Amino acid sequence: VQLQASGGGLVQTGGSLRLSCATSGSIFQLHFMGWYRQTPGKQRELVARITNGGQTNYAGSVKGRFTISRDNAKNTVSLQMTSLKPEDTAVYYCNAVRIGAVDLWGKGTLVTVSS
Fold it and tell me: What pLDDT, on the 0 to 100 scale, is given for residue 30?
């Protein structure tokens, strides 16, 4: 498994969860890392991405509530999710991407936000 995601679960509206994705050093150093999410019947959408240099971008729906970060010592990317809403309920996928290479995906982790 090249991308190992963890941290999903059930939380109430307004609560917080932290997702983590671990990978190898070679992948971590060469790729932009990100999180996507998908709900039934919808396309997978980008939630947040962080470059090798630490630049971040977020979907408008999560900006100000979610924070993506990289731990270069642990080859891990995390997504801190706060002020969660029922519409954040989805399967979240870790992603690694670089130009000229096939995207890498982790197994999804389910986040359920109850109202």
Answer: 86
Token representation of residue 20? 């983590």
Q: Please give the average pLDDT of every successive group of 10 residues along the chain, which has 115 residues.
A: 92 98 89 96 97 95 97 95 98 93 93 96
**How far is it, in rounded angstroms, from Cα 97 to Cα 69?**
16
CA distance 64 to 15: 14
**What are the two backbone dihedrals, phi and then psi, of residue 88, each rounded to the nearest 5 degrees?**
-85, -10
Beta-carbon contacts of 112 under 8 Å, excluding residues fewer than 6 positions away, are 8, 9, 10, 11, 89
φ and ψ at residue 30, rounded to 5 degrees: -95, -15
DSSP the chain: --EEEE--EEEETT--EEEEEEE-HHHHHHSEEEEEEE-TTS--EEEEEE-TT--EEE-TTTTTTEEEEEETTTTEEEEEE-S--GGG-EEEEEEEE-TTS--EEPPPEEEEEE-
